[in-house]
Amino acid sequence: MQMLKVLVVDDEPGIRSGIDRILSKFTVGYPFMDEDIGYTVLEACTGEEAIQIFHDNQPDIALLDNKLPGMDGIEVLEYIKRKQLNIEVMMITSFASLELAVKATNIGAYDFVPKPFTPQELRSSMENITKHLFLKRMTQKMNTEGKQIRFQFLSVLSHELKNPLNSI
Fold first, then answer.
1. Which end of the chain is more exposed for a tag (fewer CB within 10 A), N or C?
2. How far from chain centre, in Å, is Cα 144?
């Protein structure tokens, strides 16, 4: 089973442990995937701690609260965008507003889930973000392989075109 690293950034220990319990035995599988995907949960209680974990552990997904001590969630999201980190972000916050949701989405958040949320709401959002991440990575892999195949084709083509010229 493939495991994705999920960083839960929230100053409330109950939220962090609740998300850990919800995701610990949860897996996502789709007919087009070779294997199911599970989650390894990492935790941070401040934005500064999250940034350190981004560089040390390179999580795949961040569940990011907005109201944090020190840096708030929007500042962390702006940091992710500025540094072009390959992390999908889901904002989770008690102080949900349309303005905040639009701002977070414009900066790069994939999803916005207001607290309190049910385990089913979290699982559903995790399925969506996991599917998005999987398809994004497959597209990147296909683009890379496509470039390699084109290069090989052009190399063979140029070699084959040179052979008749050499004979002449």
1. C
2. 19
Q: Measured between alpha carbons, how far is residue 91 from residues 34, 110, 153 in Å?
A: 29, 8, 44
Neighbouring C-beta atoms of residue 150, cutoff 10 Å: 10
Sign of the CA dihedral with 121 first, then 91, 60, and 140 last: positive
- What digits encode the pLDDT tens for the residues 46-95? 999 999 999 999 999 999 999 999 999 999 999 999 999 999 999 998 88
Cβ atoms within 10 Å, residue 61: 24
Are 11 and 67 in contact by the 8 Å Cβ rule? The answer is: yes
How far is Cα 104 from Cα 18, in angstroms, rounded to an integer? 23
